[in-house]
Amino acid sequence: MLLSAVKQTPSGLLKKVLELPEGSTVGDALRALGWQKTEEIGLSIYGRRCKEEDLLKDGDRIELTEPLRIDPKEARRLRALNKPLLATRGRKHAK
């Protein structure tokens, strides 16, 4: 079966394609790739969390993701603080 794998690295997104026999697990794929999963790194198949023991299907994409550096709500708030306010438009004064 043919699989793809993606992992975030300091230099950017690393993508690999590999072929494994039917009945392979996520752990088998990680070993074949030479990638290590640590406790803080997330593991998923198409964005759904998984475990190393989970069986793979043909065409699956394994994703290794690093933990968030900042809470998404906090990041949005900080971006909003750095943007100039725009004049609001609307129908409040429309006739």
Automatic annotation (TrEMBL):
Similarity-based family: Belongs to the UPF0125 (RnfH) family.
Name of the featured protein: UPF0125 protein HMPREF9439_00051
Organism: Parasutterella excrementihominis YIT 11859
